[in-house]
Design a protein that fits this description.
- With 180 residues, the chain is mainly alpha-helical.
- It has a domain of 111 residues: Arc Repressor Mutant, subunit A, CATH 1.10.10.10.
- The protein contains 7 helices and 3 strands.
- A hairpin with a 2-residue loop joins strand 2 and strand 3.
- The termini are far apart.
Amino acid sequence: MDTIDLLLHPVRLRIVHAMSGGRTQTTSDLCARLPDVPKTTVYRHVGLLAEAGVLEVADEQRVHGAVERHYRLRHERTRIDAEAATSMSLDDHRRGFAAAMAALLAEFNAYLDRDGADPSADSVGYRQGTFWFSPGELAELIDALYEVFASRARNEPAPERRPYVMSAIFFPAEEPPQSS
């Protein structure tokens, strides 16, 4: 399975998100984090991600006669690089966007279903706006945002920290008709 097909799946995207941030987790841990996904589905997708090298075994231990594997994410295997993105068809992009939105919606619903969910106190936001950019201005904005996100991506889990899901989506809107 190629990287595009592997990563453009809502359950696998959720597993990748759940494993990010330097965590090591068992498949059982992932089942607890994704309670809306059948356990057999989680096990199957963890197996696919491990077989493809996206997840690697960090530790193994015997538990009640079975081997329990602790996995960690190989970040370099989770990216669809610019070359691969360029080779994607419009249907691949459509499928990727749908998978990303399905994963995002599932994560948001899981958050809302947790005891004590408080969107206001947790600074939850879902704002959208339209901005006018030249190609150079858009590239400059993306580079600046990348720098901000990359500097925080190195944050390790700590007692005072909570993981937050952030999504940046850029696509051109239809231009309004020109007035005469």
